[in-house]
Amino acid sequence: MFNIHDEIRANQRRSLFIIIMFFLFIGLLGAMAGIVLGVYANGNLFDVQSIIFTTVLALIISLVYIAIFMSSGANMILKATGATEADRKTYPFLYHTTEALSLAAGMKKPPKCYVIDDTALNAYATGFKAEDSYIVVTTGLMEKLNREELEGVLAHEMSHIKNQDIKVMLLAAGLVGATILLADLLFRIFLFAPRGGGGGEGENKNGVFIIVVLVFWLVLVITAPLVGEMIRLAISRQREYLADASGAKLTRYPEGLASALEKIKNDPDPLVDRANKSTAHLFISTPFRQKKGPSLMQKLFATHPPIDDRIARLRGKKN
Question: Which residues form the catalytic set?
Answer without folding.
Answer: 157
